[in-house]
Amino acid sequence: MGRRRSGRAAQARVRVVTARGSLFWINLGDSSPPEFGKTRPGLVVSNTAHNEVLDSVVVVPLSTIGDEVWPLRISTGDVRGKTSFAVLPGIRQVSKVRLAGFIGVASSPFMERLDAAMALYLGD
95, 24 in Cβ contact below 8 A? Predict the structure, then answer.
């Protein structure tokens, strides 16, 4: 069975290196509460090897509103001059065409905290 490739997504895959732990501006579009919408920072949490072959990535959106609430909201420290939080209930798959600009890469200690929080939030 052949793979179906969308032209825009295939082009995005060529242009965007999406390693796990990369932070991008992501256009999440319209939303219905409590979903996250608009263009905001998001952290790529899907596996780098999968990201290299798929037209989409799994991201955790970031927000500057609220406080840390373990394991739902994890403080990222400053992102572009603002204290931000990775909001695990907002985890979602997005097409690579929604990646609007590279911001940076999360630190290894932060990714370890995020992995522990995701295991609690998504596990049994």
Answer: no
